[in-house]
Amino acid sequence: MTTIHTTRPAQRRPPRGPKPPWRSTNGRLWILQAALAIGYVMAAVPKLSNDPRILAQFAGLGIGAAGMHRIGGLELAGTVGLLVPRLCGLAALAFVALMIGAVAARLPGG
Q: On the CB side of 79, how many CA atoms lie within 13 Å of its CA?
């Protein structure tokens, strides 16, 4: 006695093209870096353009105009660093230090 086994042919999926950039981890990180860069530029421009409200805030912290310009320059330089692949890790680390300094300046007695 002979038994014949029949199997269904394997269903093949249509070939997929490459993933869109925002679907990969690297693409998502670049989107995050670009969003952070835009935010830091928006924070640096008033400091570098002598906005009176920002100058009053820095004077209240005891930092003054020179410190405000330094911080604005650091933010702008860090923004460029975020967008350069070789410098993005260092720029992110520098931003962490800058934000720790900002928090320390805002604390009572800081």
A: 18
- Contact yes or no for 78/69 (Cβ under 8 A): no
- Residue ranges of domains in the chain: 24-106
Q: Which two tokens stand for residue 6?
A: 């029949």
Cα–Cα distance, 76 to 47 (Å, whole number): 10
* Cβ within 8 Å of residue 63, ≥6 positions away: 71, 105
How long, in residues, is the chain? 110
Residue 73 to residue 105: CA distance in whole angstroms: 18
Backbone angles phi, psi at 75, to 5 degrees: -65, -40
Per-residue pLDDT of the chain (110 residues; tens, 9 = 90+): 677 766 666 677 777 777 776 678 888 888 999 999 999 999 999 999 999 999 999 998 888 899 999 999 999 999 999 999 999 999 999 999 999 998 998 887 75
Taking the complete model, does pTM exceed 0.85, yes or no? no
